[in-house]
């Protein structure tokens, strides 16, 4: 399950880390989605509530899809 996966990197440079989305990212992810909704809509509809995020992340525990994040190496912040 996604919640149990470690935040191991898939790729790293001196400035960024690419890794999979986990349930630990919920609050930061939702905050970023909410702050970007005007820019993203009508092209992308991402979960903007806890309930929607919890449902969304279940899609990625089956092995047929992945959610990938780009994060700042120094802080771990989702970019």
Provide a descriptive summary of the structure in words.
The chain has helices spanning 26-40, 50-58, and strands spanning 9-12, 16-20, 68-72. The longest helix has 15 residues, at 26-40. It is 30% helix and 18% strand. It is built from 2 helices and 3 strands, in the order E-E-H-H-E. Strand 1 and strand 2 form a beta hairpin.
Name a few traits of the molecule:
single chain; 79 residues; alpha+beta; 2 helices
Cα gyration radius (Å): 13 Å
- Low-pLDDT stretches: none
Strand content: 15-25%
- Provide the helix percentage: 25-40%
Number of helices: 2
> What is the N-to-C order of secondary-structure elements (H for helix, E for strand)?
EEHHE
Question: What is the residue-mean pLDDT, rounded to a whole number?
Answer: 90
User: Which structural class fits the helix and strand makeup?
Assistant: alpha+beta
What's the number of extended β-strand segments?
A: 3
Gross morphology is: globular
> Going across the major beta sheet, what is the strand order?
1-2-3
Oligomer: single chain
In short:
30% of the residues lie in helices and 18% in strands. With 79 residues, it is an alpha+beta fold. It has a three-stranded antiparallel β-sheet with strand order 1-2-3, with no helix packed on it.
Topology readout:
Blueprint: E1 9-12, E2 16-20, H1 26-40, H2 50-58, E3 68-72
Antiparallel strand pairs: 1-2, 2-3
